[in-house]
Amino acid sequence: MENINSCTTLNNGVKMPWLGFGTYKIEDGSTVTESVKEALRIGYRHIDTASLYNNEEGIGIALKESGIERKEIFLVSKVWNSDQGYEKTLNAFETSLKKLQTDYLDLYLIHWPQLLNKETWRALEKLYKEGRVRAIGVCNFKESHLRDLMEDAEIPPMVNQVEFHPYLIQNDLLDFCKDNNIQLEAWSPLMRGNILKVDLLQELAKKYGKTVSQIVLRWDLQKGIVTIPKSTTPARIKENTDIFDFELSEEDMDKIQQLDQGLRFGKDPDNVYANPDIFNK
């Protein structure tokens, strides 16, 4: 993990940058276009989006206007709950490709565990075999969801993107993913801004001469977790990349580990699985 271009290698040999640029709740149009262009200018090469975010078109414009070759960018999107199922997933994939102005994705994920997981996964396997996507995976899957999916999967997931931060570490899930060569990835690594209120992290920021955000993002990487912070502020976008010139001690890594409370800022995947319309309520 020497610089922003450093990568983990997924279980199929594909290289995925450890640090990515998240785009959740970044408005489509000029806002997301300029933010992604700035991220790419600074050096990010991993861009994460989803059909739910409704900003794929703006990201597609940013990729084109950046002047960076498509093969240099690791592009991720996700199939939304209402699009799950074999045929619907294939259609949703084509829609995302069109909006993003590309003919392939580097990673395509099931956004939340649903009753239709296995049908959806068959569609992802088809896309993978056809070379339309370089890697496939899931989001928000607990160990039980992964075990159920993998019972019938021909191809195992390569990535599991979950809520992960100092207040929600999920050690058992992390161990399961490591044992099964599934790369864990963190969404909401900065606890939706709440990390700024944590005394220990403020103390460590002073100790290392870094910001609280940089301490947490570095902690993610040292734990072997891919992380995708987001910002629309150029200075913050750059700040989030300045995490390759220092290393947290084992003692400080353990101190952060002790912050774990099992606290979610997002939805519990079990509740989403049991109530597919939960996002419409």
UniProtKB/TrEMBL annotation:
InterPro entries: AKR (IPR020471), AKR5G (IPR044500), Aldo/ket_reductase_CS (IPR018170), NAD(P)_OxRdtase_dom_sf (IPR036812), NADP_OxRdtase_dom (IPR023210)
Gene3D superfamilies reported for this sequence: NADP-dependent oxidoreductase domain
Top-level division of the source organism's lineage: Bacteria
Keyword Oxidoreductase: yes
The keyword Nuclease is assigned to this record: no
Keyword vocabulary terms for this entry: NADP, Oxidoreductase
Start and end residues of each NADP-dependent oxidoreductase domain: 19-260
CDD domains referenced in this protein's UniProt entry, alphabetically: AKR_AKR5G1-3
Record family assignment: Belongs to the aldo/keto reductase family.
Protein name (database record): Aldo/keto reductase
